[in-house]
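User: Can you recover a sequence for this backbone? Please restate the input before giving your answer.

Assistant: Of course. Working from this structure:
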């Protein structure tokens, strides 16, 4: 099995070859723009790694890896529109650089392009991949709707929030790994174990993202730090702060998250102080550790060699200790 950097290089080379500007340019240039913005390439790398774990051909897994990455970036374009986000990976979002209609249409085209990539597989593999992809894509949409609904709800439970991030983020990580296992003809049990490993890693990843949104370094994080606070998002940090805070701080936090304020820097600062003082920040870090450990426990049951398991565990550890 190769190093993580080798998988990244192989995928990036394939992504580069995939990038072609077609007509009309105003449809395809935004697609190339978002795909060029970088990112961690977590999902496609996991597809390649999983295929390799079961002695599958990495080259054969490249189209599925690319489909996952194209779909992920499609969802980012539309998420940014819904969140009115100005930055993505430290650069202008697509709807800011072009306009709203272009962002919607280019995103739609990316969803179709993702499906097209599965057409390169034999019928039996295509059917399995397309079925998994359709289920996952719909769950991502459901997760996004939960996220939107939570913005206007007075109360959201921790279990509801965890379900939302499972659908919005984690299921695609799980699917990325299961696709690699499917392509390598792994057993059904191992395919499911790979899915569960990826899903739990994805939950931990999103909780880490929530934490970095509040406490990350703006120079390395790549997005607007405090964006979730400005948008009144009921993240794990917020929900735990309500659970742990004094009545005074709880009321203050609810007031901060029920209003649109021009002084966003003060709102971010005060909210972060409550997150820290209440123990919410610490509880979020513990939750990240819990789901990471759960993923690693599932990893132990997958029928691959110990050195391969160690590489996957190392990758998971890097994700959970990142600052970007």
């Amino acid at each position: 099995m190769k190093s993580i950097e080798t998988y990244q290089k192989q995928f990036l080379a394939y992504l580069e070859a995939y990038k072609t500007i077609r007509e009309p340019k105003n449809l395809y240039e935004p697609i190339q723009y978002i795909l060029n913005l970088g990112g961690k390439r977590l999902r496609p790398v996991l597809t390649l790694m999983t295929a390799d774990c079961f002695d599958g051909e990495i080259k054969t897994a490249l189209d599925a890896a690319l489909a996952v990455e194209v779909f992920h970036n499609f969802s980012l374009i539309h998420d940014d529109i819904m969140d009115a986000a100005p930055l993505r990976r430290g650069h202008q979002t697509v709807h800011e650089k072009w306009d709203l209609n272009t962002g919607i249409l280019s995103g739609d085209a990316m969803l179709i392009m993702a499906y097209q990539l599965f057409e390169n597989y034999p019928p039996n593999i295509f059917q399995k991949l397309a079925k998994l992809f359709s289920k996952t894509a719909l769950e991502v949409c459901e997760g996004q709707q939960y996220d939107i609904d939570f913005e206007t709800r007075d109360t959201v439970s921790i279990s509801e929030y965890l379900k939302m991030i499972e659908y919005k983020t984690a299921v695609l990580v799980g699917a990325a790994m299961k696709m690699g296992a499917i392509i390598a003809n792994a057993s059904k049990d191992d395919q499911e174990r790979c899915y569960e490993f990826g899903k739990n890693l994805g939950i931990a990843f999103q909780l880490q993202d929530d934490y970095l949104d509040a406490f990350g370094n703006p120079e390395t994080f790549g997005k607007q730090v405090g964006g979730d606070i400005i948008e009144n998002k009921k993240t794990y940090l917020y929900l735990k702060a309500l659970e742990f805070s004094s009545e005074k701080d709880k009321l203050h936090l609810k007031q901060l998250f029920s209003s649109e304020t021009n002084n966003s820097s003060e709102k971010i600062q005060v909210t972060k102080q409550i997150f820290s003082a209440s123990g919410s920040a610490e509880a979020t870090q513990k939750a990240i550790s819990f789901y990471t450990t759960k993923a690693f426990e599932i990893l132990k049951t997958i029928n691959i060699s110990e050195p391969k398991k160690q590489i996957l565990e190392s990758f998971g550890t890097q994700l959970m200790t990142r600052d970007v």
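That completes the design. Strands lie at 87-88, 91-92.
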